[in-house]
Here is the input.
Amino acid sequence: MKAQAIDWFKERLGVDAIREVMDHKTVPVHSATRWYYFGGITLFLFGIQVVTGTLLLFYYRPTVAEGFDSVRFIMTRADFGWLIRSIHSWSANLLIFVAFVHMFSVVFTHAYRSPRELTWGSGIALAGLMLGFGFSGYLLPWNQISYFATKVGTDVAGSVPVVGVAIARILRGGEDVGAATLTRFFALHVMVLPMITAALIALHVLLVQKNGMSTPPWIAASRVRHMKFFPNFFLREVMVWYGVLAILGALAAIFPWELGEKADPFASAPKGIRPEWYFLAQFYTLKLIPSHVWIFEGELLGIAGFGAVALAWALLPAWGVNRAGQARTRLVTGAGIVLVAYLAVFTVLGYVK
Here is the structure.
């Protein structure tokens, strides 16, 4: 009867089909194989976000009157609440950093080539969603820094031509950042964005499974050997996850995430207020642009420039290959180096200036 029950579940769950896929899936082994781990690290950190975020939901209350106090209760009264919140905050930052590393590894190994255009597109969409998680979650503690940073961020969104005013009003739920903004950001952070992200992750993983892992164009396919994904590569990936978890735990325990002071809309903005590090390069660039450039407003010109760069980056598979379908390695690598240098230098300048 036990064997019959197992066979019954296997037949209905498709276990044999899954096992067959796992048995045949392989990973190319070459000098750039180490970059394959960053996709799994990104997925692992997203799982950490889901688990810790769910635990925080048991105590958090998304209202102006109770939001800050509920986070303070988590950090001071709930068992290990300070640790869970610190892990959630640190893993959010590590998640965005690792997602960027994964994106640029795809660029420098030219893994966007046919037939992986949709894999690249879904990955870019996921990177945008990670930034959306960061922006929406930043306001939830309802402290001074997050309040005024969100005010600045929605002001920038409101500067977008034609649709900016409507976007800012939708985000804020009114004319200014307030109770409606907190409720909307909470809904985005815990419901809307997770549902979209889950669907896109499923699509992204399915595309990776269908098309396999790309080999860099400078490595001859005949010289590449393969290892089985399960258990060989998977066990290596798990060991990498252990390392990431150790780093995450150390950061959360040694440098616990601070709460700050409760938001006061009537107070002056804190001196030197700035967004989180993943928006600093754009923030500092907008500060450098003059208020008017010829007949154009400087801020609008900067936003238009960011939009054009983002669109060109999303369309990389269209201009990053020639008519024969081969990667334009020098052009794409050069563009990637310039973008990495810009983000690194301007992020640092945004901190020190």
